[in-house]
Amino acid sequence: MVISRKPSHLILAALLAFMPFLSFANTTHGEVAPAHTTEASVSTPEEGHAEGHGESHSGGDIRSQIKNHINHHVLDSHDFTLFSDEKEGKHYGFPLPVLLWDEGFHAFSSSEFHHAENGVVESNGKFYVLSHHDGKIYRTDASGKLIENEVTGHPDNVHPLDFSITKSVLFIIITALLMFLLFSRLAKSYAKNGGIPKGAVRFFEPLVVFVRDEIAIPNIGEKKYRKYMSYLLTIFFFVLFLNLFGLTPLGVNVTGNLTITFSLAILTFLITNLTANKSYWGHIFWMPGVPYLMRIVLAPIELLGVFIKPFSLMIRLYANIFAGHIVIMSIIGIMFIFKSWIGSSLSFGLAFVLSILEILVAFLQAYIFTMLTALYFGSANEEHHHEEAHH
Predict the structure, then answer these.
(1) Residues 377 and 228 sit within 8 Å (Cβ to Cβ)
(2) DSSP letters along 112-141, please?
């Protein structure tokens, strides 16, 4: 197996190309959302966090406001807030559809949580509220009372299966449509111009070639890389686009969501093990070249490694993206705590440098995830020629 030593070429070229489009990234991160107080007992997750943490401060504790704003940025929600009016305490955006399965299908708009009395929404004879604590939807009675568990702090109410189009799901759909349109045009451009793409989509050709020549072929091999190329290209651009969306003022944190990275890791795990050859499984359960007693000891260790690989993929992407968002938002928040030209200037400069670094990380994490995926595919298809008689 060969791991490419040229990721910096891709990152530098892509960074320079995307710089004009991302020069205003994070411009709204410096706005500090006020602590929200509403008469309704249940509202949006971001309002709930504000009530839970800033209620006793009456909006005067700047640290609580910063913490609420960071929570609003990194957490998923059932509606999409574009911006807020600090003076009026209003949020401007649009609701998203709520889709639940709870002894039947329930569908309604997330705006009903704001308009309904006490935030209790009735659907087919059942009542639902949006919890302030974790942003999840629970079934209650008509009063909307949540029974909180004293140990965990989470409600003990029934939590229906939630298939809602949340903010993260919305951007996954947008990213999927964007990729479909871009690469459909790229494929048509190849066909019309004799294999030479033209137009704006030609920018993506070097990235496609990079994935093929620097990731797929070195790690999988000339003979078998083609059957994995579609997945490798999909996973590379999917992670890349979502990482870049997370750096915009839209405030999405999809790849910093553990469930998303878990889903991507599961896909890699399934493809790796369902397409593996006999030699791969033979080296796991009955490793050649070692004494028989050691094979019995090594087999469970090797089998454990099969599950550790996707786990490392999941944690690596999640931790890097989530931590990056938290660090940048926290440093920007320091500007409002210092309230001096020295401290604020230093915080702004550091936040600006880290924002540029996060663009680099967006490309780097897409590269690492794709490279490790290709490495796993290659190990699952590698032909081993061990002659046990020689050992």
Answers:
(1) yes
(2) HHHHSGGG-EEETTEEEEE-TTTS-EEEE-
Tokens of 290: 């070692």
Is pTM beyond 0.90? Reply is no
Amino acid letter, 61: D
Cβ pair 50, 86 in contact under 8 A:
no
If we measure between CA atoms, which residue out of 66, 49, 50 comes closest to residue 58? 50
Tokens (6 digits) for 69: 């704003």
User: Do the Cβ atoms of 236 and 367 come closer than 8 Å?
Assistant: yes
Q: 351, exposed or middle or buried, with CB in 10 Å at 0-12, 13-18, 19+?
A: buried
For the chain, counts of helices (H) and of strands (E):
12, 8
Please choose, from the candidates 359, 357, 353, 362, the residue with its C-alpha nearest in 3D space to the C-alpha of residue 332: 353
Q: What is the pLDDT of residues 210-219, one digit of tens each?
A: 999 999 999 9
Other Cβ atoms less than 10 A from the Cβ of 301: the count is: 10
Amino acid residing at 27: T
Distance CA 301, CA 278 (A): 18
Q: Which helix (H) or strand (E) holds 81?
A: strand 79-85
In single-letter form, the type of residue at position 48 comes to G
- Residue 93, classed as helix, strand or coil, is strand
For 119-139, how does the pLDDT look when each residue is reduced to its tens digit (9 = 90+)?
889 998 899 998 877 778 999
Going from the C-alpha of 39 to that of each of 51, 114, 124, 328, 364, the distances in angstroms are 11, 10, 25, 33, 46
